[in-house]
Design a protein that fits this description.
Length: 171
């Protein structure tokens, strides 16, 4: 009777099983390559998703990053695949393998695009904050050089006037 019982792996939905196998194999390959340099390239760095304005970004990374997990933590890949097994199996049984795989890839692409957008907004905020601080420093320098100018006039003063005043004072 023991031979007729289905095994644990036979009850897993096929797409979920294949995704788990692919993810674990990629994780093992990246881990092995980290230690032995099998192909001479930092696989994790090449296939990880980088910011789109850097030289490291390649369009294929929007797909390849979905199969990469923390190299130094088995729990990362384990709990990711555990979640895929728990929720993906139900979705695959309900939708079928094709729709589930489409959903999996679409969510991964969407997450990558959102990450790129958040990084873009983060950089834009940092640059605008940097520019604001630069202008504040210029205004403070003008106030130190010309203490009698009322503060409300400083914001209307073009920055080129700052260069003229600086030239007059330091020449």
């Amino acid at each position: 009777m023991a031979g007729n019982e289905p095994s644990f792996f036979s009850n897993i939905a096929p797409a979920v099983k294949n995704l788990a196998i692919i993810n674990v194999l990629v994780w093992l390959f990246v881990l092995a390559n980290e230690k032995t340099h099998i192909i001479g390239v930092d696989v994790f760095n090449v296939f990880s998703l980088h910011y789109w304005e850097t030289d490291s970004f390649k369009p294929f990374q929007l797909v390849s990053y979905m199969f990469l997990h923390d190299r130094f933590s088995f729990s990362h890949v384990f709990f990711n695949m555990f979640a895929v097994w728990m929720f993906g199996g139900i979705m695959e049984h309900t939708w079928g393998s094709r729709r589930f795989l489409f959903f999996y890839i679409a969510c991964g692409l969407g997450a990558g695009l959102i990450q790129e957008g958040v990084q873009y907004i983060d950089w834009a905020i940092r640059l605008s904050a940097y520019n604001i601080m630069r202008k504040v420093r210029k205004v403070r320098k003008i106030r130190l050089l010309f203490p009698r100018i009322p503060p409300q006039h400083l914001h209307n003063m073009p920055i080129t006037w700052y260069a003229v005043y600086r030239h007059i004072i330091y020449s």
